[in-house]
Design goal:
five-stranded mixed sheet; alpha/beta; single chain; 12 helices
Length: 321
């Protein structure tokens, strides 16, 4: 397909037609008259050799191809908008801009809140929008990243996209303060015997794989899509939950649970900011990445204050002097 031979305005018309399923409403939405919109639909039908919209009773329904194009057209429009709003120079103190970041509630609590405070101080015209990443993140990563400015996600889940390293975290376990079945130290037998609170998505995949490699199949009694809710679902029960250390530190004293070290050498969590290559040379995005890396340094500092040591790898520490 030669893109030079296409009228990219048809992409906008296609999205409006597929979403509105009505020629008049679609034209009104993008500022075209009804005849002009009908002409655009005719061109699109010739191009795809498909009706796209089929009359059913008093309205229209999407054909099978129309349904397939719906999500793709939304993604294409979002990507085109990001391409044509790219900037060569970005002044954060005077710009008005919105960044959309896909993240778990853990990443927002541990990193996003600090990032938002810095942005509020240094760039008052910048808005941050945090959205929960969908469950099919590993199946449609490219399309997902094309509709956002970044994705906060640990290593070990996706790859082949640019990323900036943020911070390192550890995995810990939570049990209720009054759970008489767990002693001063958690054991592998405890993990195999006790019911679990588990996270529904893929963010803990490497840690979950490690548990399986130890021959433990967690009995998930409760499953939830929020890491911050897990302590509440552990308190007052026999349950156990796997949670990130930095988040456990922030929740310390708020819920009657004990934080316990894993009874094995747990794989560390390395959080990163991932993005679509289309953003790599955009001045606004470069500022976002540099600010994110700077904010991540404060998380290392907090870990040192709480635990009395630096939770980074030796290589990371030497790079920073």
């Amino acid at each position: 397909m030669n893109l030079a031979s296409l009228d990219l305005n048809l992409v906008v018309a296609l999205r409006a037609l597929l979403e509105e399923r009505n020629v008049t409403r679609a034209g009104r939405r993008i500022g075209l008259s009804q005849p002009a919109m009908s002409a655009a639909l005719a061109r699109l039908r010739r191009h795809f050799d498909d009706d796209l919209l089929s009359r059913v009773g008093g309205g229209y329904e999407l054909t099978a191809l129309g349904l397939a194009l719906l999500d793709r057209t939304v993604t294409a429009c979002d990507l085109l908008e990001r391409v044509f709003t790219s900037q060569a120079v970005f002044d954060p103190a005077h710009e008005e801009h919105e960044f959309t970041l896909l993240a778990s509630d853990y990443a927002v609590a541990v990193f996003g809140a600090d990032l938002a405070r810095v942005v509020h101080t240094e760039a008052p015209g910048i808005r941050l929008r945090f959205k929960q990443a969908p469950t099919d993140i590993t199946e449609n990563t490219g399309a997902l990243l094309s509709t956002a400015d970044g994705l906060l996600l640990p290593h070990g889940i996706i790859g082949d996209f640019p990323a900036v390293e943020l911070y390192r975290d550890r995995w810990v376990y939570l049990v209720a303060d009054d759970n008489p079945e767990v002693g001063e130290r958690l054991t592998l037998d405890d993990l195999a015997r006790l019911p679990w609170v588990t996270y529904q998505r893929t963010y803990d995949a490497p840690a979950a794989r490690q548990i399986g490699m130890l021959g433990i199949e967690p009995h998930a009694e409760v499953s939830v899509d929020s890491f911050q809710l897990m302590p509440l679902l552990v308190a007052g029960t026999r349950r156990v939950a796997l949670i990130q250390g930095h988040l456990a530190d922030r929740l310390d004293g708020l819920v009657p649970v004990r934080v316990m070290e894993p009874p094995y050498d747990a794989v560390p969590l390395r959080e990163a900011l991932w993005w679509h290559p289309v953003h790599t040379h955009d001045a606004a995005h470069i500022w976002l990445r540099e600010t994110a890396a700077r904010v991540a340094e404060t998380i290392h500092g907090k870990a040192e204050t709480i635990h009395g040591n630096d939770d980074r790898d030796p290589a990371d520490r030497s790079d920073k002097g």
